Amino acid sequence: MKEEKSLIIFKPDALQRNLLGEIIHRFEKKGLKIIGLKMMQLEDILLEEHYEHHKDKPFFDSIKRYMKSAPVVVMAISGFNAVNAVRLIVGPT
In whole angstroms, what is the distance from residue 50 CA to residue 31 CA? Predict the structure, then answer.
């Protein structure tokens, strides 16, 4: 097992539905450590970099609109096999 870091972006509805605390608790229960947490309003440039692999897909503009519709929370975590643990917790995105 190796120490890894991963980035999680909590989408706008996670905040609107007051799910942030419960979701963070799930990561902590798996032994992952929060090393950074920030609320921010995303802008086109950052979204285009992050979702570059979707840029030519028909749903790209709707993803950008949704992710800009309200603030998001960005969280950095670390732990053993953190990347796989995150995938197991959040499922396909």
Answer: 26
Residue span of the structural domain in which 52 resides: 3-79
Q: Where does 1-93 show beta strands of DSSP type E? A: 3-10, 33-40, 72-80
| 78 bridge partner residues | 5, 33
Side by side, the strands of the sheet bearing 3-10 are 3-10, 72-80, 33-40
Q: Based on the structure, what is the number of domains in the chain?
A: 1
| Average pLDDT of the chain, as a whole number | 94
Q: Does residue 91 lie in a domain region?
A: no
Residue 46, domain CATH:
3.30.70.141
> Which tens digits make up the pLDDT trace of 60-89?
999 999 999 999 999 999 999 999 999 999
- Using CB atoms within 10 A of its CB, is residue 66 exposed (0-12), middle (13-18) or buried (19+)? middle
Query: Does residue 93 form part of some domain?
Result: no
